[in-house]
Amino acid sequence: MTCDEFEQAAFDALDDTISPDMTAAMEAHRVTCSRCREIAAQVQKLDATLRNSFTAQLPTNFDSRLHQRLCLEQLQAEYASGLVRLQREWAHSSTLTESICCAVLAAMVCWLGGHLLSDWPRQIAAQAASFGIQLLTPTLAGALFLFGGLIAVFPLLRRHHTLQP
Hints:
Blueprint: H1 3-14, H2 20-32, H3 34-53, H4 62-130, H5 138-163
């Protein structure tokens, strides 16, 4: 081993990041080389100085505060995942409620359209004829009402089918 190799590996030896073979080679070289003995002594002295002068003093309640913080972070993560699950379940139940409402609304439109086809369309057609509009027959007036109701319900049905998970 050369002195340059010893010098480069000296700091790694302090951290125990070199192989046992390299440690043995460094020790054998240090025994025979006064310059490298001096380098090793300076590195060890520097390491001891740094370790002693920069010791961090933790607050007395550091462990309990760290534990509380970790518990809080875990609770926040559990809350967030629970919130996501709840939103998914709520979206599913709201789409079910929405589809039931759409079915009821469509049934009411059909029933009301059929009920109104008996008399109301004739009155509308007669009113339109008094204004000179001859194209609006009772059947057409009832059909327009029925289609208008279905057109109002269609966006709700379409939105329900695109939102399902």
